[in-house]
Amino acid sequence: MNYTISCYKTEITEFFLLGFSGSRTLKVLLFFLCIVIYIMSLTVNSMIIGLYLGSWLRSPMYFFLSHLSAADILLSTSVVPNFLSTLLWNGQTMSVSACVVQFFCCCFFTGSECFMLTAMSYDRYLAICNPLHYVTIMTKKHYLCLATLIWFLVFTSIFTLTITICHSGFFGCNIINDIYCDYSPLSENSRSDIFIVELLKILLNIILAILPFLFIMTSYICIILSILKISTSTRRQKAFSTCSSHLTVVCTFYGILIAKYTVPSKGQSVNVTKTISLVYILLTPLLNPIIYSFRNRDVQKALSKWISLTL
């Protein structure tokens, strides 16, 4: 296949995605490993959504969990098929529009996951710290409006950033040494005012990632303090078990996300950055539902009932 690669100061009409470097054998092995993980991710996340839609898991917590699973599916799907192509063909060309859409999708679904995890922590806070008013506060209308607001807010924010980056076109080198179209290569080649772009990026990072994380941590401090006040150890253990799976998912998600954006993306660490990006795109969507399946009794019971009726 013929690819057009240019590092001259010309207008960019398409990008060339390098993906991973290495031997052909290594790439083939990675290709099949990624396919297996991707299929498993689609299966377990679809299972969570199916259990909620099938009325096996009917509570606000699992409503938000089903939305988290949907975001996981869409996040991995926006990257993995194209990444598999880079492994087979030693790179992949992408039109500017396709690259921009991929960037938008990755940011959009990442931001949505941050807010869904925040909504889930809010739900656990109400259930444990304010149980007498939980039913009256977390009504169906309430959590439907909350989910709609999350999707709309994140969509509007990321759409604004995307338009700001790409509205003046791209100029420079069209090689992207990464596994997908991320912020850094697009902003480096954007003709837009980089000061405005960086300022908007910092603002959105605060709104979509940092503030939700602080809210989650504050919620769990309150939850832990409330649990410690419970008189019997059995009730304390039961109260903590209702939110332990969510806390594990939060730590896993933010841990990988922080690693992804703190490791330098240039020089010798570029392969480390690619590996972390792959873990984030491929493994995080798989780990989230698995953690809930293994650590949450409600999910285990619902899955057992579903399997018993199916077989």
What does this entry look like structurally?
This protein is mostly helical. The protein has a single domain, classed as Rhopdopsin 7-helix transmembrane proteins (Up-down Bundle). Helix content is 76%, strand content 5%. It has 11 helices and 5 strands, in the order E-E-H-H-H-E-H-H-H-E-E-H-H-H-H-H. It has helices spanning 24-53, 60-77, 80-89, 96-129, 134-137, 140-166, 183-189, 194-228, 233-262, 270-295, 297-310; strands at 10-11, 14-17, 92-95, 171-172, 175-176. The strands form 2 sheets. The chain has a 3-stranded mixed sheet with strand order 3-2-5. The protein has a two-stranded antiparallel sheet with strand order 1-4. It is globular. It starts with 9 loop residues before the first strand and ends with a helix. The mean pLDDT is 87.
Give structural attributes.
5% strand; cell membrane; 311 residues; Rhopdopsin 7-helix transmembrane proteins
